[in-house]
Amino acid sequence: MTKSHHCLSCGTEIQVANSGRPRRYCSAACRQAAYRARALVAAAADRTALAELAVRLRDNADRLWLISQGWSPPGDGTALDTLLTDTVAVAEEMFRLGDGMRDGTSPD
Fold this sequence. Notes:
Number of domains: 1
Shape: rod-shaped
Number of helices: 2
Strand order of the largest sheet: 1-2
Organism: Kibdelosporangium banguiense
Oligomer: single chain
Radius of gyration: 24 Å
Protein name: FCS-type domain-containing protein
Distance between the termini: 43 Å
Strand content: 5-15%
């Protein structure tokens, strides 16, 4: 006796045999289309993360410019060290994400 379920890509009904691992896609073309869709979602997430990091880097650059003009941040004097540490961390993360996007691999 066989069961049926639907292709995860196109929704076509697939007959499933009693033994073995059930098929998730009706064809190699649907399997490839699903892979490409997942890759697009991952690339969009990487671009979003990169844009958020760019905003943080710009904010840090603005604060550093203000400090260079004589503004002193409120707090106990460790704000500059924290700002510099965060700026370096943001730049390194941007480089890591951008490098992964450039060579086509996932940075994770």
